[in-house]
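Hi, here's the filled form for the chain we discussed.

Project: internal
Contact: R.S.
Residues: 209
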Amino acid sequence: MAAELVTAAELSSWVGATVPQAQADLFIAAATALVMAEVGQTLTQVLNDTIVLDGTSSEWLALPQRPVTAVHSVTMQDANLSPVTLDTSQYSVRGNRLWRPWGWQFSAVFLPPVRMLGYQYMTYPPPSQVSVVCDHGYPAGDPGLELARMAVFTLGASVFANPSGSRSVTVDDYSETFADAYAGMQLPPATRAALRRRYGHSAGSVRPQ
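And the returned structure, exactly as it came back:
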């Protein structure tokens, strides 16, 4: 599970007021999810994540989460859909993609010649799946997270800095403050564009450990 982009203490410091822990946790989870959904990336560091992809005949296999910081193992299915773990000499890691000279789909199978037709039929095995165990995302404190964190703080300022007009309902000592603000929480267009530029699929790369 990915970590949140900011802490409750950081949120309170940013808005200049103490945000109750329950409200802070609720907001941070929602704002983090909103930012990550905007870019289609987890962003925060995930270790030993297993990603399963459909293989193709292309030599290149793009990994969906970025940046990829380490690839630990690659397993693909053979023509019988049995798993085969590849040796590291059988593929290369290039940025957020894997390269394998034979592609990521097991080759076509030739049947014996058909006498009547005088040539061989070519058949293809079922689609292969490729399972990749890798690390991806930015660790806590990495400068690469700053734009995403600022997006959360910007949302926090709009929700918590001016609470007047937001409704508050207390049920069993739990305050559901700012519920209306949560419901309408949106990223400004300029922020959305900046996030996509920074964390889009062309932005990431494998970084050395």
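Let me know if anything looks off before we file it.
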